Amino acid sequence: MPMFDELNPTQTIMQIQQHLAALRQAFEDCESDYQWASAYSLADFEASPLNMTPAGAQAILNALADAHQLWMTGQGTPGFPAATLPYNFMASMRMIDGTK
Q1: Structural domain containing residue 59
Q2: Number of structural domains in the chain
Q3: Is residue 53 part of a domain?
Q4: Per residue in 27-55, pLDDT tens?
Q5: Residue 56 placed within a domain
Q6: Which of 9, 73, 78, 99 has the greatest number of C-beta atoms within 10 Å?
């Protein structure tokens, strides 16, 4: 990916727009995943066909809950409880995606 100082102003704006659109789409996808997962219990994730470990299932649910909290907080949803800050929303997601 080119660095911003290697791009002209139009290219820089386009790249930033692409990144922001990808971020918005990722939040929308995670929100959809959160809504789907909300219909199931931890035991459902541990049962067939998923057969996840309790720790793995809980990690997935935690990451989706954190992504949902970010989504709701970012939209300024009235009545939605804000997380106690400072809170590292990315910690649970990094456990799932393997990044440090």
Answers
A1: 30-97
A2: 1
A3: yes
A4: 899 999 999 999 999 999 999 999 999 99
A5: yes
A6: 73
